[in-house]
Design brief:
six-stranded antiparallel β-barrel; two-stranded antiparallel ribbon; 151 residues; mainly beta
Length: 151
């Protein structure tokens, strides 16, 4: 299941370009329907269907246990990376986080030193296919209930 983790997405690339993306920031924490270390930005529409208890448990760590999630749909592009066009190396992603746990505007820098210079975050690459964007976080990524933690 893909979880909507944000909207109002902007990408700042290492070469200085800024791209505003339409759609929702989607992520599959289990990696069942979309690669776990890949974020998808595409059009997402709420369908108004009922969310099952099993589905609620998948999203409550990110959106908050009192948030009422919504069922929606999107046209998920192919997950095979060879069908995507590389845009460039990503420096920062900006997004508005929904829910009740930690709503608000967030950003995440890639490829910069953090944690008192003990850890350098990894590289992230931005890809495009039609109107959809994809952020490849790389192996060992952590994109969980806290958000995009690293690389």
């Amino acid at each position: 299941m893909l979880v909507c983790k944000g909207s109002s997405i902007k990408f700042k690339l290492k070469d200085g370009r800024t791209i505003s993306a339409r759609g929702s920031l989607l992520h599959d924490p289990k990696g069942t329907h979309w690669p776990k270390c890949s974020l998808l930005v595409c059009s997402f529409s709420r369908d108004g269907g009922e969310v099952t208890d099993a589905q609620k448990s998948d999203v409550k760590s990110y959106l908050g246990r009192t948030y009422q999630p919504h069922i929606g749909s999107c046209n998920v592009p192919p997950s095979n990376l060879s069908e995507w066009q590389l845009v460039g190396e990503l420096r920062t992603i900006y997004y508005a986080r929904p829910g009740r746990k930690a709503p608000g505007r967030y950003f995440h820098h890639f490829g910069q030193r953090r944690l008192a210079a003990f850890y350098k975050s990894g590289k992230a690459r931005l890809y495009k296919r039609g109107n959809a964007y994809r952020v490849e976080l790389g192996r060992g990524c952590v994109a969980d209930g806290r958000g995009i933690v690293f690389p």
